[in-house]
Structure formats: C-alpha cells, structure tokens
Design brief:
The protein is built from 16 helices and 3 strands. With about 400 residues, the protein is mainly α.
Length: about 400
C-alpha cells in the first residue's frame, strides 16, 4: 500500500492525468493479487487496497502539495514499476529507487532553463505574427516574469500572486515599449510574454478527465484554469487602469506582418526544444519533442487553409497523439513523453486570453466569439486524443 501510494503521488506531482494514474495503480495492485480502488485529485491521492475477503481493506492517503510536469522523472517512475511488475526488483528496492529519484538534481541547469523561458516567449511572438523587435521584447518580458515568479515562490503566500503580478508586469512593460516605439504590436508582446502563465494545457487536461468520467478531478482542473485566467486578466485590467492615470492609453498597434516561413520553421524548432527543457524531457528524446511539435504545426498549417479552426485542431491533436502512441509502442516509454511537447503548441489558452481582452475593450460580441472558439478548440483537442487512443493505442499504462 505504501509503495502504491508513493507511485501515485509521484505520478501526480510529475504531471500524470488522474485517469491514467488510477489505471496504473489498479493494474499494479492486480498484478500482485490485490484489488485497489484509487481516487486521484490534483491535490491528493486516496488508495484502498484489499486482498482477502475476510480482512478489512488498507487505506492510504497522500497530500500532493506541488505539481507540475517533469517528463524525465515520469519516465523513471515508469521504469521502476515495470521492473517490479516483471520481477526484476522487489518492492523494497523499488521504494529505495523512488526516494533516490526524488533527490536527484534537475535534468537541465538553471541557465538553460532561463534560456528556454526566453526562447518560448520569443517563439510565441513569431507565431502571433510579431516582428523582430516584438520577438526581443517578448523574450525579455518572459524572462522578467519568470524571475519574478521564482522570487515570489519563495514566499508561501506570494506564490499565489505570480499570475496576477506577472500579467501586470507584462502589460506595463508592453505599454512602456509602445511608448518608446509606437509601431510595436502591444498585444503580441503581452500574450507572448505571459504564454508560460496561460493554462491552456490545464484546460485541455481537465476536459480530457471529464471525458474519461473523472468528474471531480476534471472540474478541479477546469476551476484552476479559470482562476488562472481570471488572475491574468485582472493584472492586465489593473495595468490599463494605471495607464489612464499615468498618461493615457498607449497608441494603437500598427498592422502586423508575419515573419516568413523560414523564421516560422526556426521558431517551431526553438519552441519545441524550449518546451522540452521546461518539461524536463530526457536528453536522449529531444528528437521526439521536435518531431511532435513539427507534426502538430504542419497539420495545423495545412488544415487551417481549408477547414474551420476547431476541425484543424482535431486533426492536429489526432496526428500528434497517433505519432506519440506509435513512438510509445516502439520505445516502450510513456506516450506523454512524445505527446506533450506537440500539444503545447496546440492548446487553446491564447484564445481564452484574447476573449478576456475583448471583454476588457467592451467588445462583448468579440469576447463571446473568442471564448466559444476556445471551448470548441479545447473540445476538438480532447476528441483528437480520445480517437487516437482508439485507432492507435499506446499499449502503455502511461
């Protein structure tokens, strides 16, 4: 029971969805002749384990205080419980390996993570049709937000203000940049700067968990995404109020002209590698991050020329997940390792941000349209994942 609880809490902390986590625990228990009932939430895991009909079940519970995405540790946990299932190590040895894993240093050094943060914001500016100056300013804004977030997370109470103050900082920096160069596209700088804060993946995972009938966990993730959106928009609205008090709003942005296809391709490779570093993809699987991102981007590029956005999103998610499941079969590694970097380029968080931006501008019709488009795209992504798991199952628990 303690071993299963350690497996479950580590999987939750490293980014495993609730429905996959519960399936892993049930399968591991059944392999050893036990019957397990698991209830997983983003903030905790409950396990009830039973073997004999005349004996009461054993109950375990663990609180998950911090969670994120660490794909390298997720892969190591997968290796550990597969070794136990195939009798290559004992449960005692596996628990020792799990404790050692929790003490390992990060996969990538701090300078590389800082570079990845700047690269992800700069690449996002390219995708949002920004120019060279917008790319540089967006990368600098992303770095400033990341530095502030690291400082605030040292304070137990201050970490809850990261989204609000981060978006406030992005809006104020964008306003200052447009004061110096009025031709800059302010909305590109703001959106690319806060791209790491926008909870598009949380929204998509929550919808996927609801589709898998994990109602409590899915609803919790959706509420987390909503609160994050609300914090981001509140920070931007606060910045708009300060601007009016300090000297009026910034001048309107000029017409944007997207950079050419070679720059888009370079941004795709850079963004894929940046997300690989941020999500701690093992170095030997960096190729998978680039491939996953390329599959999603190319499918979206061609599909959006002829199909509505939500249909293009469905095809892109289907393509990414089919490839991810195929790689999972060939390498015997978790499908999430190959799926997540590509899905990050598809998540609908930017549409949610743009809908709130429209509301702040008193464009309620435009805000409603963008918000509905966000839900359509999120639903299409979830359906793409589910359909891919039917036509090309990964044959892996993770």
């Amino acid at each position: 029971a303690d071993y299963l609880l350690e497996i479950a809490s580590m999987l939750m902390a490293y980014g495993c969805p609730s429905y996959r986590l519960e399936e892993v625990v049930r399968a591991l228990a059944a392999d050893d002749g036990h019957e397990a009932e698991t209830f997983a939430l983003p903030t905790g895991v409950f396990i009830s384990l039973k073997r004999w009909a005349d004996k009461p079940p054993v109950h375990r519970m663990a609180r998950v205080k911090e969670w994120g995405v660490n794909l390298e540790r997720l892969v190591h946990v997968d290796v550990v419980f597969n070794d136990v299932a195939e009798k290559r190590c004992t449960v005692t040895e596996a628990r020792a390996r799990l404790k050692a894993l929790a003490l390992q240093p990060p996969t990538y050094g701090r300078p590389l993570v800082w570079l990845a943060v700047a690269t992800s914001s700069g690449a996002a500016a390219v995708f949002f049709r920004g120019g060279f100056v917008e790319v540089v300013v967006s990368a600098s804004t992303g770095l400033a937000i990341y530095a502030f977030g690291r400082a605030m997370r040292k304070n137990p109470s201050g970490r809850f203000l990261v989204d609000f103050v981060g978006s406030l900082l992005a809006a104020m920096l964008a306003w200052a940049a447009t004061r110096v160069s009025p031709h800059l596209a302010r909305e590109v700088i703001v959106l690319a700067g806060v791209i790491a804060l926008v909870p598009g993946m949380t929204l998509t995972t929550g919808l996927a968990e609801l589709a898998q009938k994990n109602l409590v966990s899915g609803a919790a993730r959706l509420m987390e995404a909503f609160i994050t959106f609300l914090s981001i928009v509140s920070g931007i609205a606060f910045a708009l109020g300060l601007e009016k008090s300090l000297g009026g709003p910034a001048p309107p942005s000029a017409v944007r002209h997207a950079l050419g296809l070679p720059f888009q391709a370079a941004a795709l490779v850079c963004a894929s590698l940046a997300f690989a570093v941020i999500f701690s993809v093992p170095r030997s699987y960096l190729w998978a991050a680039i491939t996953s991102g390329a599959v999603g981007y190319v499918t979206t590029f061609f599909a959006t020329r002829y199909l509505p956005g939500h249909v293009a999103a469905f095809l892109a998610a289907l393509s990414v997940c089919v490839c991810a499941n195929l790689f999972a079969r060939l390498t015997k590694r978790p499908a999430q390792l190959f799926q997540l970097p590509g899905m990050m380029l598809l998540v609908p968080g930017s549409f949610g941000f743009l809908s709130f931006e429209k509301f702040l501008s008193n464009d309620f019709a435009g805000g409603t349209e963008k918000g509905f488009e966000m839900l359509l795209i999120a639903g299409a992504l979830v359906m793409g994942v589910l359909v891919a798991n039917v036509f090309m199952p990964a044959r892996k628990l993770l």
